[in-house]
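Why do we care about 3D structure at all? Because function follows from shape, and shape follows, mostly, from sequence. That is the central idea of this module. The next example makes it concrete: a single protein chain, its amino acid sequence, and then its structure expressed as tokens.
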Amino acid sequence: MIRRILVPLDGSSRAENVLPHVLTIASVFKSRVELLHVLPGVGTQGRERLYDPLAYRLAQAERTTYLNAKAVEVRQSGVEVETSIQEGGAAEVIVDLLRTGAYDLVALTTHGGGCGKQLRIGCTAVAVILNARTSILLAPGDPIQAGASASGLRRASLESIVAPVDCSPRSDWSVTVAAQLARATGSRLGLVHVLGRPELTSRLPESADSTALVNRVLESNRREARRYLEQTAWRLKGTDLEVDERLVETSAGPADALHELVEAEEPDLLVLSAHGRGASAEWPLGGTAAKLIFWTRKPVLLLQDLPGQRERSKLAPASARAATELL
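And the structure:
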């Protein structure tokens, strides 16, 4: 499912903050990790810098030593790892590698060594998120959350995972991954469905008939959402997993409600699909996913739709049987 993970590192402690989360995910899915460092290309064209050949070789040797040391720490956790040094612009190199299709996940932090605290998310992370068609793990790039300790690199501790669902096969896919992570780490899995009030297009105040129609649609959606949550939770609980289901009704959008929930409850990980029920797979991200990955200050695992899921996403909401088949 997640067989190979690309982890760009720029030598900063901020970028290394993603490593504990990578160790956890790689351990669960038996993934192979590739640690990547990008050196600015030698030359005078575009944004590339002109380097002294000797200084460049020294920098290359220094980064090779750095990556090898990090690889040793990762390997000590029982995870297969390799290293790679590429030349060019960081974002361009990362995106080009992801477009080869060789990686199932790219793991990075909101900030690296070259980004100040005044920016909510760094330029490299933004470029990768907007251009990659690969699943993304984004962790906070706060220096105080250093992944290494005196005893070496440790796996991230997961006690609570939140998985937003919208009754679609796409959310079934993300729940499958979230459940595997929760089961392997002993975490509590929270299923959340956000139910908004249907809107009718009108320039005039809502009439009594319109209000009655909206209420009927709302009640129908409410019943279907509760049924879906109950069926999904029942299916997952049968695998010795602690699952909580929650229906959140709001007049705001789903991203607002989910962001508020994450800020209040502070789960250890948010797992969701890159596209929701109403989004087109032609866009790298759906609206809710884009808002959450750019604004939530907790680790986010954003799962890009696989080719098989893209076709299933055009179908009606999954039944309990269809959801079970995804496992």
